[in-house]
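<instruction>
Derive structure tokens from the sequence
<data>
Labelled lines for chain and fold
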Amino acid sequence: CSNARFNPHNVQAPVDVDTKTITSFWPPLKKAMSDHKPEFSLEHPPWRMMFPSEHDIKDRTNLLSYEDATYLREKHAAFVTDIPAYPKNAFKGKGVVMLAGGRYSEFAATSLGMLRESGSTLPVEVWRRDEREEKHEWCDEIEAEGMACRRLSDYMDTDILEIEDGKEMKVLVMLFSSFEEIIFIDADNMALQPPELLFEQEVYKETGAIIWPDFWTYDNIDWLDYIVGASDEPSEKLWKLKSAESGEIVWDKKRHWRSLALATYYNYYGPNLYYTLLNYGYAGYGDKDTFPLALRALNEPFHFVHVDPESSWSNGRKGDRRVGMMQMTPTATTASESQAQVDEQGQREAFFHHSTTIKWSHREFLCIKCLPIWYSEDATAPFVSAIENTAHELYSRLLNFVRVIDEDSLLPFMANSTGDAEVRMWRAMEHAACRSQAWRHPRACEFGRRYVVKAFGMGFVDAR
């Protein structure tokens, strides 16, 4: 294996930005959100192991009265009226935006390695909450690869202890990104093809936004469409549609500025209201459906990918233990192309692998006697990696040099240029463990290399 991290195209990091111009919209947007704050809240629903029945979903209508829903509808309409104009000359160019910080920075190290190995030449912004999540050596390293570190605290007044739920930060980093056209990618999501190909898709050129589906349909409260002005009465329309997955989003901020601002409103008041309006308590509670909701509320065009996601399964547990979610390449040639037309094409190539269950980092897999990461892990409890925990599902596989992902669930969806995605993941982790000044860990490096040699029959060279 050659080094997984390189910058052969000399991608320049977006380090010089005009923060003052970029943040010019924030005071009026924050004021509008404050002026139209809904003085109404809904409790976080209890976690559910099974998707709710339609009967259970219908019962949630009683959480709001007609008067409650009308009050929220009026607040929503007033905010939409006060959305500030798009800030001219604030944003430029195209790039990838990723939210890291805490333990997610190590997942991001793997994901960014996969990004560059895919052949991507896009500049990247890697965001964290504030300086307390800073890892200075890493920021210096990734700048050489065309990536820049950003702190959300440099753009808005925020304190970690005031953020009720980290999910609402995704839309904020999309807002404050210096790029006009962005591809947001979760830190635990890995690009299998160059993401810039998505900007060339006709469905993106036509609409300016691409949203991918989740595994399940909506389970929202039926008052939702009434509240956001998409219906004049409670509506069950969404219950028949696939919900969204926000591990990857393509968004033109100039064309969809108002809906991005509206999604900010939904997330700003998400933990106390909108997340519960959108979700019954099954998997997916959080920001994921706020983006298409904002687009629909303002009747703005977007492309919802017609091709369903596929699961990558744990080796030896196919159909039982999911490793991650593979989101497919959009195959529609126009935004209006039907699902039946897409199905006839029969093209199902994975574009992203979102590690929803097993998180890929050398620390999670192989680190020995590592310290906890501040904030995201209990500082008083020892960190235990998979290789240290005999009860961990990966323990025996790592010791016996057996691949993690079931081949039959992964390889059929790889594009010709992708190869075996698991090999790429291990190469990116090898870089972090062995070659990165910020992340390297000699024992993890030694074992990781031995694993790759025996599991995949590949060796390593140290020359960069």
Summary: The mean pLDDT is 90.
